[in-house]
Amino acid sequence: MASSISARSVVPTSTIGSRAQRSSVHSLAMAKAPAMRPSRAFLGSARSRPMRRKTTLRVVANEEDGDGEGGTARWQKKLMDRENKVEVRTSEVKEAVKQRLPLLLAEVASASEAQDAQSEIALPNNLQARLRGSVSQLKTGLVERDAEVRLILLATLCGEHLLLLGAPGTAKSELSRRLGTLVQGKYFERLLTRFSVPEELFGPLSMKGLEEDRYERQTRGYLPEASVAFVDEIFKANSAILNALLSILNERLFDNGNKRVEVPLVCMVGASNELPESEELDALYDRFLFRREVKQVSADNVPALLQLAARQGTFDLGEEESGSVDFFEAQPLSVEELRAVKDQALAETKLPQEIVDLLCDMREFLQEKNEPPVYVSDRRLVKIVSLLRVMAYTNGRKNVNEYDCLMLQHTMWQRPEESEIIREWVLQRIAQDKGTNQVWYLLFGIFRRACHAQKDMPGDEEVCQQLLTETRQLREVLVSQLQGLADTKDGSLPVLRDHLWLSQGDIKRTTQTLNPMLKKARTSLEKLLEETLILEVALEKGPEPYMLALLLPEYWGKFIRNGPLEESR
Fold first, then answer.
1. pLDDT tens, position by position, 449-466
2. For labelling alongside 548, which of 95, 272, 283, 481 has CA 20 to 30 A away?
3. Cα separation of 406 and 502, whole Å?
4. Three-class secondary structure assignment of 366-416
């Protein structure tokens, strides 16, 4: 018998069968030929498959066939039987995945809803509805002031202060007066100049006190006894005013003579046409946690502004108006209620580790990677944590989420143009790759090890069980990540749509920006989940390289191309 038999004479083309069967013949023959080192052609592209098939069959015929064509026929039958078994098992895996995947995705959606329900807080005294009503009433008769209204009310709930930066005639003082009407407490307002003296803010000296050798002020009707205050052109304050003002804003204490008294101030709204220029004003600037640049009404809404003015007669958006519109129908908020909100928020809400990491990364980005650097003080960072917890509580949640961090655009900037940089950074963080690359590499590592494991081989059964455990753990990770994106499947973001403190303009812009990015992330995670489920079911049935190659061709191709030669054999 000739030592070499051509592929054409050994196996007629008409008897090889389907393309999948011919592929099986080639694959199994190579696996049964240990003496034959695969050539580079065997590991090459799909175009070289016919040549590899002929070479393989020659090797099989030479080494195993002693009876000529009869032996070859037996080998072909064995290969066909093996291929049929692989096809059956592959079909079983695909059918099992087809049944499990929809159930798993439905479980993701229901788990997300249950998790949201568990994280909800029942607010007392119908608080959320009252706050929404307050927002609605505060912006009645104003155009494009939704964000400012929400900021001023949120600052009041947090016990913090708001700086409104903008040109005259943009309703800065009007907003403050409305807040004074909403809060059941004393309201104080003053315009500062370079020649302002402390008596204008803190009250005149007591004549009776001077007669008794006491240096005290008459504070009734002045800032030390106010609950809500508005100070216009606040950066014109001189050093004589600054010292007392700083302690009032931060510690809520006022030194009156030899006594230090507590002040009931809940929120101060400061206004200015320009940023502070001298370093002595930096401490005062840092006392304002909330900062907002107030712009003119846009050209698109000027007609609405004029029509509104026509309906209201003499209504004026200017800051020189002496009165406010009598518009309140909602129940006012007392100072005690406002303070109770913050106390309850700090008692009932939590700050997840992912939010802590976000704040740390944001500070590092602003101070070390942004140009010019943006300084964020420790005091500001600590107050931001309280702010985020108040936001979560008033939205009826136990935990702060990433969407609450969009408020950082109003709390971390030093110059108005930096607000947009912060917003974009937070959006990128929300929609960032949810670890899909890391999960893919972990899944590929399990796949590569599975290609070496044979369930019916001695010692490999324990390896297969370990691989199955790791695959299931990886599936749980993907399910957890998909739960965070479950609310975005229909293209909407309910957590944004119902958010109490984000303006409608912010919500619309954020939704338009996030939807494409979140859709891409969700699609990648769902694809990885399906591939993980395929590998899990395959491991349950016992891994075989042929079956894994058919089920996950992308992983098999990378395994062949990038793995060592001995590993590929």
1. 888 876 555 556 788 889
2. 481
3. 8
4. HHHHCCCCCCCCHHHHHHHHHHHHHHHHHCCECECCHHHHHHHHHCCCCCC
**Cis before 264 (ω within 30):** no
The DSSP string of 149-180 is HHHHHHHHHHT--EEEEE-SSSSHHHHHHHHH
Residue type, 38: P
Question: 165: which strand partners?
Answer: 272, 293
Q: What whole-number distance in Å separates Cα of residue 482 and Cα of residue 52?
A: 43
SS (H, E, C) 5-21: CCHHHHCCHHHHCCHHH
Q: What does the block give as tokens for 232?
A: 């216009």
12-51 in b/e form (b: 16+ CB < 10 A) is eeeebeeeebbbbbbbbbbebbeebeeeeebeeeeeebee
CA 87, CA 21: separation in Å to the nearest integer?
A: 10
What is the spatial distance between Cα 371 and Cα 512, in angstroms, rounded to a whole number? 27
Could you read off the pLDDT of 418-438 as tens digits, one per residue?
999 999 999 999 887 666 788
Stretch among 98-107, 189-198, 482-491 having the lowest mean pLDDT: 482-491
- b/e per residue 553-567 (b: at least 16 CB within 10 A): eebbeebeeeeeeee
pLDDT digits (tens, 9 = 90+) for 172-214: 999 999 999 999 889 999 999 999 999 999 999 999 888 888 8
The DSSP annotation for 232-282 comes to ETGGG--HHHHHHHHHHHHT-EEEETTEEEE----EEEEEESS---SGGGH
The 8-class DSSP code of residue 457 comes to: S
Return the amino acid letter for 428.
Q
Question: Are β-strands 259-262 and 333-334 bridged in parallel, bridged antiparallel, or unpaired?
Answer: unpaired
CB contact set of 525 (below 8 Å; sequence gap of 6+):
434, 436, 478, 481, 482, 485
Q: How many CB atoms lie within 10 A of CB 205?
A: 16
d(CA 52, CA 36): 12
| Predicted pLDDT at 43 | 37
- Give CA 108 to chain center in angstroms: 18
According to the model, what pLDDT value does residue 483 have?
A: 80
CA angle 542, 546, 551 (to 5 degrees): 80
Q: Which residues contact 561 (CB under 8 A, 6 or more apart)?
A: none
Q: Can you tell me the distance from the alpha carbon of 197 to that of 207, in angstroms, rounded to the nearest whole number?
A: 17
Read off the tokens for 152: 């001023």
Least Cα distance to 248 among 265, 271, 232 occurs for: 265
Q: Is the pLDDT of residue 11 over 90?
A: no
pTM for this prediction: 0.73
Going from the C-alpha of 61 to that of each of 17, 35, 64, 322, the distances in angstroms are 18, 14, 6, 104
